[in-house]
Amino acid sequence: MGPDLIDRLIVKNESKIVYLVMDGLGGLPREEGGRTELETARKPYLDNLARQSVCGLLDPIGYGITPGSGPAHFSLFGYDPVKTNVGRGLLSAAGVDFPMTERDLFMRVNFATIDQEGRVIDRRAGRIDTEENRRICRKLKDRVKLPAGIEAFFETEKEHRALFVLRGDGLREEIGETDPQKTREFPHPPAALIPEAAATAGLIRSLMDQSKAILADEEKANMVLFRGYSRFHRFAGMEERFGLNALAIASYPMYRGIARLLGMTVAPQTATIEEEIQTLERCYNDYDFFFVHVKPTDSRGEDGDFEAKVKVIEEVDTFIPRITALEPDVLVVTGDHSTPAALAGHSWHPVPAILAAKTCRPDGVARFGERDCVAGGLGRMPMVYLMGLALAHARRLEKFGA
Amino acid sequence: MTWGTASHAGIEKKRDGALVFGSDHLNKRGTGLKSVPLLFCRMGAARPIVKIKDLTPITARVKLPAGIEAFFETEKEHRALFVLRGDGLREEIGETDPQKTREFPHPPAALIPEAAATAGLIRSLMDQSKAILADEEKANMVLFRGYSRFHRFAGMEERFGLNALAIASYPMYRGIARLLGMTVAPQTATIEEEIQTLERCYNDYDFFFVHVKPTDSRGEDGDFEAKVKVIEEVDTFIPRITALEPDVLVVTGDHSTPAALAGHSWHPVPAILAAKTCRPDGVARFGERDCVAGGLGRMPMVYLMGLALAHARRLEKFGA
Questions:
Q1: In whole angstroms, what is the distance from residue B141 CA to residue B131 CA?
Q2: Do residues B167 and B219 share a domain?
Q3: Nearest chain A residue to B297, by CA
Q4: What's the per-residue H, E or C state across chain B?
Q5: Is residue B317 a part of any domain in this protein?
Q6: Contact at 8 Å (CB) between A29 and B280?
Q7: Residue B40 located in a structural domain
Q8: Distance from CA of A356 to the nearest CA of B (A)
Q9: Structural domain includes residue B301
Q10: Contact: B304, A57; criterion CB under 8 Å
Q11: Is the pLDDT higher at B45 or at A346?
């Protein structure tokens, strides 16, 4: 069964589905045989929810595959993460709500510092602040010269990161990355990876050279590095595929962007987890699917800060009663992938998951933790099938076959 | 395992220099090549029992059409490898072993029209062999089966960047390892010698396939106790393997061979994957029942390699 079989079985009803996604939730013990972040956290409400629901472990992409945030989220929402894998540029563009057209080529820009010979000495340009980033984007936009029929847009994201968009006919995405990934190296030229991309590669090369000249008087951000090229892609949205009127409550641009690409309405940005829960409560009557994204579990995992990740989980736990008080027909609590503090980065380990619904068959899981979830009723399953299960428990799937 | 049997012997010969067998040669000549294990038996005998040492008579006397070469290579006891080399040979040929005594050998039928010429050639070779061997007391007939053309597989180096060593004493497993581009360590006689080889070669490779055959053999024998003993013997060598501190240690089997069934079975195979990056599960003993509750769950074996590579930090992130 492919992940899109459910599309043919959709029926609409009044049910509500809440996805509480703690980014990078899965973890590892600090010491051999010890407890993971989730197992360490004091989280009575989540443990209680685990007892009343069905648990399991989800593989975002496949055994051994460490996912980026993009494919992991596509998988969570029932989209084949390999087929839908797109360059970072498109996710950035969606994240800043850039008005996209089908003639666009998106790419990520990292501002960097180069020395007099042109070697990269800081790949993040001293993490210039966002205001500085805006000034440099304006400077580039004003001075860069383009061939007839081509438009260019520099859009600030955050710190040293920006989105760069080329608009024109026949642009290709098969271009090599220019970030050498190491300092003391020259930026790579933007190579055409297929012959048809030669013209686009030449254009990008010219823009790199122009940018270098334009930024020569800058102290920190005196170079641009391009990566994550992507043309425009249209995805069948959650309404189109599942008949769901979906709201995304996420504060980080990338997740807001993914939600937009999948046709969700994106709630105004908020600063804290509590504000996200308030948004959920306030908008609960107006949508039937809610994607609540909690970023700090991943951020603290990336920092390698075990204790801080534990604290984030404990904070999320305090909001569980407010979510269950809404009495959603289906409540899923999981992550998009694992970010064990022990590895200070994403990993390939499966992600613990709770699926709570009246129609859950009880399992023996008494605590929400990786070890406990091994024995859960969901077993170990590909994440891409989670959406189908949620829809089934929401009674939004009809029978297959006679 | 038709291809396994055919290929191990062929590749071995290539290494010996006695028989050119490989992709270079194929490319150069653009020819097809076909290898067929031979089964010698006495017509009417209950089981093939003859030990063939010298295949010279048959090799020397068989007559071939222009452009075709043939190779008869002794394997063991009544078994041999037969290789035809030439253009346009096909593998879609029916088996000739009737699988029962008191039956005539089946003719080598062409299973698709394109295989008619090859079938005719094999038929002629069967007839010739029968005539050539008419004066033999025991091995007076050949039965062909397991036809396979040459297949090239992307090796472990090519696919995974692994410089792999196979420590296996049985020809078939050595053959599979060769097909996948592993270096094959010299043959050894005991499990202990295999472990010694592992220790001796540990610095020179980054993937080690250590193959223990007797668990399967004793299972095939239907000898429960003996299979238990083999497992117990392997257990005594685990400290010597862990002392090498591999980043990833996998202990598993290729399939189940329950003594109760005296043969291969479809049951899933228990597995251990040990690495610093393992998430602990609750399994306290290595056994089929305990592994049901293991953190790997019940997974298709074909994904094990990806997991091993992940724990060895040899896979990069997928997607942005």
A1: 9
A2: yes
A3: A380
A4: CHHHHHHHHHHHHHHHCCCCCCHHHHHHHCCEEEEEEEEEECCCCCCCCCCCCCCHHHHHHCCCCCCCEEEEEEEECCEEEEEEEECCCCCCECCCCCCCCCCCCCCCCECCHHHHHHHHHHHHHHHHHHHHCCCCCCCCEEEECCCEECCCCCCHHHHHCCCEEEECCCHHHHHHHHHCCCEECCCCCCHHHHHHHHHHHCCCCCEEEECCCHHHHHHHHCCHHHHHHHHHHHHHHHHHHHCCCCCEEEECCCCECCCCCCCCECCCCCCEEEECCCCCCCCCCCCHHHHCCCCCCCCCHHHHHHHHHHHCCCCCCECC
A5: no
A6: yes
A7: yes
A8: 22
A9: yes
A10: no
A11: A346
Identify the pLDDT of residue A376: 96
Contact A88 B307 (CB under 8 A): no
**Based on the domain organization, do B88 and B104 belong to the same domain?**
yes
B11 and B139, same domain (yes or no): yes
Q: So what's the pLDDT on residue B73?
A: 86
Neighboring chain B residues of A25 at a CB cutoff of 8 Å: none
Domains of chain A: 5-86+235-393 (3.40.720.10), 91-231 (no CATH)
Q: Do B319 and A29 touch (CB under 8 A)?
A: no
Domain that holds residue B40: 2-149
Q: Are residues B125 and B163 in the same domain?
A: no
Last residue of a domain, one of B149, B168, B186: B149
- Chain B residues with CB under 8 Å of A68 CB are 317-320
Residue B316, in any domain of the structure: no
| Alpha-carbon distance A31 to nearest alpha carbon in chain B (angstroms) | 9
pLDDT exceeds 90 at position A38:
yes
Closest CA to A30 of A264, A235, A308: A308
Q: B249 vs chain A: nearest CA distance in angstroms?
A: 15
Distance from CA of B7 to the nearest CA of A (A): 31
Residues B168 and B126 placed together within one structural domain of the fold: no
Residue of chain B whose Cα is closest to the Cα of A85: B319
DSSP 8-state code for residue A245: -
Query: Over the stretch A244-279, which tens digit does the pLDDT of each residue have?
Result: 999 999 999 999 999 999 999 999 999 999 999 999
For B192-213, the pLDDT digits (tens) are 999 999 999 999 999 999 999 9
Q: Please tell me which residue of chain B has the smallest CA distance to A371.
A: B281
Nearest CA in chain A to B295: A374
Q: Tell if the CB–CB gap between A347 and B277 is shorter than 8 Å.
A: yes
Is pLDDT above 90 for B126?
yes
Chain A partners within 8 Å of B318 (Cβ) = 61, 65-68, 71, 81-82, 85
Q: Are residues B223 and B163 in the same domain?
A: yes
B131 in the same domain as B182: no
User: What pLDDT score was predicted for residue B42?
Assistant: 47
Residue B221 maps to which CATH number? 3.40.720.10
Q: What is the pLDDT of residue A33?
A: 84
CB atoms A348 and B310 under 8 Å: yes
How high does pLDDT run on average in chain B? 85
Domain boundary among B98, B117, B149: B149
Chain B residues closer than 8 Å to A81 by CB: 318-319
Interface test mutation site (partner B, options A348, A351, A380, max chain B beta carbons within 10 A): A348
The answer on B307 and B161 residing in a single domain is yes
Question: What confidence category does residue B33 fall into, taking pLDDT thresholds of 50, 70 and 90?
Answer: very low
Domain count, chain B: 2
Closest among A206, A257, A229, A193 to A108, alpha carbons compared: A229
Looking at the predicted structure, is the pLDDT value of residue A362 above 90?
no
